[in-house]
Amino acid sequence: MWSWKRVSRSLCSVGAFAGLIAAATAGMAQPDRFDILASGERGRTYHDLYAPALIKLLPAFRLRNRTTSGSGENLDMLAAGKADLAFVQADLYAARLRSDPARYEGLTVIGRLTDECVYLAHRVGGPVESFASLVEPSNPVAKIAVGPAGGGMSGTWRFLTSLEPGLAQAKALDTGGTLALNQLSIGMLDVAGWVTDPRNLEHTLLRGVQANADLALLPITEPKLAYALPNGTPIYQIDTVSLGGDEETGGEQSLTTLCTSAMLFAKADANPRLVEAASQVLSLQRDTLLGLESD
């Protein structure tokens, strides 16, 4: 005999079964949880050297190397909770703290990786023959390539203009890579900049400058650019770095320039086990992480 009670009981049974199937299907479709490591551009040190090494040194975690435009984007991903760990230049972190402390002061500084230095290429005999000339009023305005907006050099340049306002008169363009060097050599640009580990003597742009007799690097010696956070943490220091051997003279070339630090950061609510494991890598296996020795 037909009744509402029987129909209701049947519908409840069917609904419960359908619910179990849906839950099981959703569970099967849910992707595995990865910890995201924001690194940098393909072909650059963060992405190609540090990230694969850190992933290998943290086998207990499912770290995934996320390609980004560089330190600026990495900081934004950490602040938004879209990355668990990230490589970041110290000067970009300092700039973010000054501009928006509420957003960035909660990030965890795991530790320092190594030095990173500023390289500014110019055209020999061009309108910019010294770093000081970038500060002096000029006509026409100097054009400097600083790479993409989320990259390290772009953020470095913005921070430098806050320390030396005269630099703001130069026109910063988002051209980067070897295209910037090619445009520099034919006069479309006056300066092309990048930031990298000074031990990376095989860096594409450094090799590009050394292979072109029309290009050279600008020394940076202005002491006013040596900057530290209020707590004493150094952000910039003037240092002399090697450019490798000179094939013609057999001697070693060097450059005095501005250097900052590459650092490893974690988001505010990162897995404490992941943070501790990454911290141990920096303390005990830094040379392996930086490619200074084989593990």
Overview of the structural elements:
The protein is an alpha/beta fold and about 300 residues long. Helix content is about 35%, strand content about 25%. The chain is built from 10 helices and 10 strands. Strands 1, 2, 3, 4, 5, 6, 7, 8, 9 and 10 form a 10-stranded mixed beta sheet that branches. The relative contact order is 0.17. The model is unreliable at about 1-30 (pLDDT under 50).
- Assembly state: single chain
Distance between the termini: 77 Å
The string of secondary-structure elements, in order, is HEHEHEHHEEHEHEHEEEHH
Give average pLDDT, whole number.
86
Helical fraction equals: 25-40%
SS element count, helices: 10
Structural class: alpha/beta
* Percent of residues in β-strands: 15-25%
Largest sheet: 10 strands, mixed
Compute the CA-based radius of gyration.
25 Å
Shape: globular
Low-confidence stretches: 1-31
Number of strands: 10
Topology:
Layout lengths: L3 H26 L5 E4 L6 H13 L5 E4 L4 H9 L5 E5 H10 L1 H4 L3 E16 L19 E3 L6 H12 L7 E3 L3 H9 L5 E6 L7 H7 L4 E3 L19 E9 L6 E15 L5 H13 L1 H4 L6
Parallel strand pairs: 1-2, 1-3, 5-6, 5-7
Antiparallel strand pairs: 3-10, 4-7, 4-8, 4-10, 9-10
Highlighted features:
single chain; 295 residues; alpha/beta; ten-stranded mixed β-sheet; 10 helices; 10 strands
